[in-house]
């Protein structure tokens, strides 16, 4: 075995698989497909909020609640799906999740009321989270060390196209058709994901490596995972970064459009450019895996995110958040997430190799709880101030650095 600069063991040349299954390009592409469901199911739908409220006779708050129920479902789906897959294997539960997600999307497309929509969005999120966490666990089953970091960064980088495409596809659907068509599109994607899993994703967890299952075993596995100080530290690294990211997602439209007069088209272009920055950063991090310490890459991203938050707060308090400052800070923040999130998640998974499903479940749960919690908090100040968002950006970066430098600090002198 050779040592990765991050302190995680790397496989010897020619290694990299566990058991009979192999990490193929088709398998990686399928996992990318699975991880794209959350941004697609969200970003394709958000532009339609006013139309949904009008047609279903709902208030803006009730429509926003359908976003919250989706995030709650995502969090719970990952928390439950990971341990279940540790017990039952990966492939069967993964196929079931994609089918349920498609069915829930059809219910959303046919919904007669906002209440039915909220319930169906919860199921859609639950199944999507279940599929995402199992897809990630499959990668952890088959790769270790620098290869694991590299593959997870590639997945994050390529999957980062979804936040770019999602709003644009949603806008086109609204322009040419009806908001319900976006849910028919997600349902079709769910069926396509099922086909991709059937063709390209083998069973990566043989029976001899499965855990017994049941509530007691789930609690025991959770305790073992949470007793790992490095895992908890990297959990904080990735979760705090996700919180800062969704502070941006929840309020950037108000900052750039309401406060600075940017047109919807210009805002969409800026949103896409920021997502592209995050994607490029994740792909660069993938290239650096095994060459530069993963912890160092994370720290660079954290310092950049912290600087963006401080600059945004100064601009919000004393200069009424000028447009150029907001654009630059948002781009730096989003690019930094490409260095922090995937690498933090990879090191968290590597810290608990005996419970990859439970480890991935905890990671996904924390990230989506952070997303669902931070998004409404960021908007507490109203649509004409960026101060709450800037404070959350700083707090997220600081908490992420605490996780890296204190909780997950290597005690053997490695970097």
The CATH class of the largest domain = Mainly Alpha
Strand ordering within the main sheet: 1-2
- What characteristic shape results from the CA principal axes? globular
Query: Unreliable runs, pLDDT <50, ≥5 residues?
Result: 1-19
CATH H-level superfamily title of the largest domain: MFS general substrate transporter like domains
Number of helices: 16
- CATH topology grouping of the largest domain: Growth Hormone, Chain: A
Give the termini separation: 18 Å
CATH architecture of the largest domain: Up-down Bundle
* N to C succession of SSEs: EEHHHHHHHHHHHHHHHH
What's the pLDDT, averaged over the residues?
A: 80
**Count of folded domains:** 2
How is the biggest beta sheet arranged?
2 strands, antiparallel
Radius of gyration: 20 Å
Please report the total strand number as a whole number: 2
Give the strand content.
Answer: under 5%
By secondary-structure content and strand pairing, the structural class works out as mainly alpha
Helix content: over 70%
Describe this structure in words.
77% of the residues lie in helices and 1% in strands. With 415 residues, it is mainly alpha-helical. The chain has a two-stranded antiparallel ribbon. The protein is globular, with a radius of gyration of 20 Å. The protein starts with a strand and ends in an 8-residue tail after the last helix. Residues 1-19 have low confidence and may be disordered.
């Amino acid at each position: 075995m050779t040592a990765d600069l991050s302190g995680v063991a790397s496989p010897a040349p020619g290694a990299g698989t566990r058991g009979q299954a192999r990490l193929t390009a088709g398998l990686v592409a399928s996992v990318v497909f699975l991880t794209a469901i959350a941004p697609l199911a969200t970003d394709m739908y958000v532009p339609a909020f006013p139309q949904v409220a009008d047609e279903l006779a709902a208030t803006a708050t009730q429509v926003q609640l359908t976003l919250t129920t989706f995030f709650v479902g995502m969090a719970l789906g990952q928390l439950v799906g990971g341990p279940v897959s540790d017990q039952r294997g990966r492939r069967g539960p993964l196929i079931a999740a994609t089918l349920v997600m498609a069915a829930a999307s059809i219910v959303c497309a046919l919904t007669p009321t906002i209440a039915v929509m909220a319930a169906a969005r919860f199921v859609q999120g639950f199944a999507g989270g279940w599929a995402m966490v199992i897809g990630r666990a499959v990668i952890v089953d088959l790769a270790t060390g620098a290869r694991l970091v590299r593959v997870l960064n590639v997945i994050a980088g390529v999957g980062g196209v979804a936040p770019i495409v999602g709003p644009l596809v949603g806008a086109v659907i609204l322009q040419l058709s009806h908001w319900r068509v976006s849910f028919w599109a997600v349902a079709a994607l769910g069926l396509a994901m099922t086909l991709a899993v059937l063709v390209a994703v083998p069973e990566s967890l043989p029976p001899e490596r499965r855990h017994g299952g049941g509530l007691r075993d789930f609690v025991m596995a959770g305790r073992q995972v949470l007793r790992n100080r490095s895992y908890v530290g990297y959990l904080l690294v990735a979760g705090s970064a996700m919180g800062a990211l969704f502070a941006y997602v929840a309020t950037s439209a108000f900052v750039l459009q309401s406060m600075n007069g940017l047109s919807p088209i210009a805002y969409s272009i800026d949103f896409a450019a920021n997502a592209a920055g995050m994607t490029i950063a994740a792909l660069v991090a993938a290239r650096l895996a095994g060459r530069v310490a993963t912890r160092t890459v994370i720290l660079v991203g954290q310092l950049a995110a912290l600087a963006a938050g401080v600059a945004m707060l100064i601009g919000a308090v004393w200069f009424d958040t000028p447009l150029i400052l907001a654009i630059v800070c948002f781009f730096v923040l989003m690019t930094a997430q490409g260095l922090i999130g995937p690498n933090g998640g990879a090191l968290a998974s590597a810290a608990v190799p005996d419970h990859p499903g439970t480890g991935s479940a905890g990671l996904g749960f924390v990230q989506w709880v952070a997303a669902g919690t931070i998004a409404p908090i960021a908007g507490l100040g109203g649509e004409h101030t960026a101060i709450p968002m800037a404070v959350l950006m700083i707090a997220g970066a600081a908490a992420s650095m605490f996780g890296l430098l204190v909780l997950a600090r290597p005690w053997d002198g490695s970097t």
